[in-house]
Design a protein that fits this description.
Elements: E1 36-39, H1 40-43, H2 54-59, E2 81-83, E3 86-90, E4 93-99, H3 125-132, E5 139-144, H4 152-163, E6 170-175, H5 177-180, H6 183-186, H7 189-198, E7 205-210, H8 219-230, E8 234-241, H9 249-261, E9 265-271, H10 285-298, E10 307-312, E11 315-323, E12 326-334, E13 342-346, H11 366-373, E14 382-388, E15 398-406
Parallel strand pairs: 4-5, 5-6, 6-7, 7-8, 8-9, 9-10
Antiparallel strand pairs: 1-15, 2-3, 3-4, 10-11, 11-12, 12-13, 14-15
Length: about 400
């Protein structure tokens, strides 16, 4: 039996209910709408009689969700693509695109897996050559989508090439796989042997697991995490704060306390950028800060170490405080070296994002503001979806979720 989420769950009920598969199908499907993936395992975590079930909200579209994604890369990653399939976003770190499959509703790289897209993320040689030629790069993230969606044999080729470069010390995955399809981890001995072979105290493999809710920490997920750690990987967590999913201090505190018990270091809580396709999940910055602080105060031990982060076009920053109408932030990585380490900007009640900061190319932050204002949030299309079981074999591990939009 599924364990219930926090007894005094105070998640917002303002998020529209997820559309039911038995509702009418849309007559038209926009060419720009991406398709995401679900696993049979993850679908079984949903309590289908609850229209506001948090796992359901994470996975499936909701009524009123816009098809105007505005930015295919919410962190302006395309602005720092330096080679086919490689993003050199900060001096010491780069992302190698190895997968164009994803299931994160808030993914920063939708441009890589929208239908009809032809990107070079499946051809890794140009990106590997770029990394080899830049000895300042010490950290490489295998992403796109989710790097662990790639077949193990293909991963072995990429990791062996990276380990032949003395300057690459850390290989990192940002992945939901340990909670989304944990059997992919603990049933794949070749993957675990690959990690054992290439993760050492001097040159580590890090797995940043995207975990949203305590209900995701099932016995299967715990087994996957344990297998990764026993193979020598460092496992940390990243948790986006979503309205209606986990915007409850008690629930977040429970998650922060359970993660270390599972062998996961709580690393980051982060604010999801309010793109029009997910504006209904966005929390005001002041509310996100308050929730994070309350959760850490209620947590014990390592849970207090989690940082509240934002992925702005100008770089990765930590939201240190929101007090007396101002937000106080610290850059952990910025694209422009001239930007100050600490920033204080006006933050009005209800403000969802920091618009006043400079964009990555040094221009005023009006560009950030315009990205959200391009779409009339009061005139969103209705949305429907279908879970495409028919195109897969009976024993398929994944199913595809296709998004449809109902025209006026």
């Amino acid at each position: 039996m599924q364990q219930p989420f926090h007894d005094q769950d105070k998640r917002s009920s303002a998020v529209p209910p997820v559309m039911r598969p038995d509702q009418p199908r849309g007559r038209a499907r926009t060419a720009s709408a991406p398709s995401l993936y679900a696993s049979d395992y993850y679908l079984r975590l949903i309590q289908w009689n609850d229209p506001h079930d948090p796992i359901r909200l994470l996975l499936l579209p909701v009524a009123g969700e816009s098809h105007e994604y505005v930015r295919w890369d919410a962190s302006d990653g395309d602005a720092s693509d330096m080679a086919d399939g490689c993003r050199h976003h900060h001096p010491s770190s780069a992302t190698l695109y190895v997968s164009n499959a994803c299931y994160c509703r808030y993914c920063f790289g939708k441009r890589l897996f929208r239908d009809g897209a032809r990107e070079s993320c499946l051809e890794t040689e140009p990106g590997l050559a770029y990394i080899a030629a830049h000895p300042e790069i010490s950290h490489v993230t295998l992403g796109g989508g989710d790097g662990l969606m790639l077949e193990t044999s293909a991963l072995r080729h990429v990791i062996e090439r990276l380990r032949s470069m003395p300057h690459v010390k850390v290989i990192r995955f940002g992945s939901m796989m340990p909670v989304f399809q944990p059997m992919r981890i603990y049933e794949d001995e070749a993957l675990l042997e690959l990690i054992r072979s290439y993760s050492s105290p001097e040159r580590k493999i890090h797995i940043s697991v995207q975990i949203h809710h305590p209900r995701e920490l099932t016995p299967e997920a715990l087994q996957a995490i344990r297998s990764l750690r026993e193979a020598g990987a460092t496992v940390v967590s990243q948790t986006p704060i979503w309205k209606g999913v986990n915007d409850d201090a008690g629930l977040l505190s429970e998650l922060l306390d359970r993660l270390p018990l599972a062998g996961v270091l709580p690393y980051s809580l982060f604010v999801v950028k309010p793109q029009p396709d997910r504006h209904h999940f966005a929390l005001p910055l002041a509310d996100a800060y308050r929730l994070a602080e309350q959760a850490k105060r209620q947590s014990t031990g390592l849970g207090k170490r989690a940082r509240l982060s934002m992925y702005h076009a100008s770089g990765k920053m930590e939201l240190l405080a929101v007090e007396n109408g101002r937000a106080y932030l610290k850059y952990h990585q910025s694209r422009e070296q001239h930007l100050p380490s600490f920033v204080s900007v006006a933050c009005a009640p209800g403000q969802l994002w920091i618009d006043e900061l400079p964009a990555g190319n040094g221009e005023p932050g009006d560009r950030e503001r315009a990205l959200f204002d391009q779409t009339d949030r009061n005139a969103l299309d209705e949305i429907d979806f279908e879970i495409d079981f028919g195109s897969h074999d009976d024993d398929a591990e994944y199913v595809r979720i296709r998004t449809h939009f109902i025209p006026d």
